[in-house]
Each structure stands twice: as C-alpha cells, then as structure tokens.
Amino acid sequence: VAEQPLDAPACVKALNEAEARFVVIGGMAVVLQGSAYVTEDVDFCFSRERRNVQAIAQALAPFHPRPYMMDPSLPFIWDEQTVRNSTTLTLDTDLGRVDFLAEPDGIDSFEGLYARAIDMELDGHPVKVASLDDLISMKRAAGRPKDLLAIMDLEAIKSLAELE
Amino acid sequence: MDAREATDKWIEENNRNPYGQQDANGVDLTLLRANLKLSPTERFYKHDAVRRFIQRNRRGRAAS
C-alpha cells in the first residue's frame, strides 16, 4: 500500500490561486497552532457565496476529488453544484484527505471565524488558520475523546502564549 | 555556573519531575514550547514526518 500523502501546502496554494475564501480548522489547524496532535486530513471551513463555491470546485478539480471511502465503481461528479449543495464534503484527493465544512458546530458563522482567524504562511502560501478560541469552541462542540485531548493542548498553548 | 553545577541542577530538577514540565492535565509544556518556537511551515513538516512514521508502523504491523 502506498504512503498516503497529506499535501496541505499544495491544497492551500490551489485554493489561493482560485481566490477562494477559506479558513483551516480541525486537526491541521491545531497542529499549525503548535500542538503535537497528529491528523490524517486537512479540514477547511468555507464560505458558501456563489463565487467561492465556484473557486473551490475549480481549485480541487485537478486533484480528482471523490467522497472518502466511496465505492470506486460508483460515478461521482465534482462540480459547482456538488459544492453548493453540500454543507460537509469529506474527500479523497491526489493531495490526501481533504474536508470542507460550511457550518461547523461551535462557531457563529464563516464570516466570524474568518475575521478572528490568524494569518500564517504555509510553505510560502498565505493562509488563515482558526483562532485558538474558535478551535477550542469547535472541538468542544464535537466532543469526541480525541477532541478533548486537542482541547487540553490548545488551552495549554493559550496559557503559554499569554505568559510568554 | 560551571558544567558540574549545571549538570547537578539538571539532575535534581529531573529527579523531582521526571516527566518534564506539565500542566494540570499532564500536557507536555516542554514539547509545546519547542513547537511554538517553530514557524507554521516547520510545524507542518514536523507533523508530516510523525504522520508518515505512524503510517509506516501501522503498515508494518498489518503485514506481520
């Protein structure tokens, strides 16, 4: 079995080139904020504005997105309509597992999340990463054991940032 | 502080707290401090190395 890629920088580059509006959330955001958490996918929160839906469909198309674990014999269409009609997309792509969530639990809105996000750079590509408070809130809303572990890390990072 | 003193101080601290600096939840603060000194890109590649290591181990276990 080949090693599974997880090329978050390439994903961010493609989304930026398509001028998409998105924020990194989930485990990868926890990692970028400084945790030693390990994740197997990249999660993005996205705006469902028409222009943005077009941009996401265009950006991901070259990387052959398909629903994660979907029977390979079943047909699947990746286009603007698929993105527009989805609140959650869990995808297998040539870049690795990529999820798009329009309305993750624990935040007020995409615009709020976007406004509070931290500007970072990933391999030279500008990217907005969810704030520590929003990540804690989303992880608390998800409430699984692995989320509780991430919350402990995030709260420790927050304390260190305040102290140092 | 000379080398002997510094080493003895480290031994004393390490004996007192063998798991390194932790918060009340047992989160390793030494590890977090080290990560916070890295850039987001460095954090990503460090994570990717660990992720690949775990994947290789899982495959090795499945094959044996």
At a glance:
With 164 residues, chain A is of the alpha+beta class. Chain A has helices at residues 8-17, 26-32, 50-60, 80-84, 110-116, 132-142, 145-163; strands spanning 22-25, 41-46, 66-67, 88-93, 96-101, 118-122, 125-129.
Protein described:
- With 164 residues, chain A is an alpha+beta fold.
- Helix content of chain A is 43%, strand content 21%.
- Chain A is built from seven helices and seven strands; from the N terminus they run H-E-H-E-H-E-H-E-E-H-E-E-H-H.
- In chain A, strands 1-2-5-4-3 form a five-stranded mixed beta sheet, sandwiched between helices. In chain A, strands 6-7 form a two-stranded antiparallel ribbon.
- In chain A, helix 1 (8-17) crosses helix 3 and helix 6 (132-142) runs antiparallel to helix 7 (145-163).
- The longest helix of chain A is centred in the C-terminal third of the chain and has 19 residues, at 145-163.
- Chain B is mostly helical.
- Chain B has helices spanning 3-16, 29-36, 40-63.
- The longest helix of chain B has 24 residues, at 40-63.
- Chain B is elongated and about 50 Å long.
- The chains are: A alpha+beta (164), B mainly alpha (64).
- At the A-B interface, helix 2, strand 6 and helix 7 of A face helix 2 and helix 3 of B.
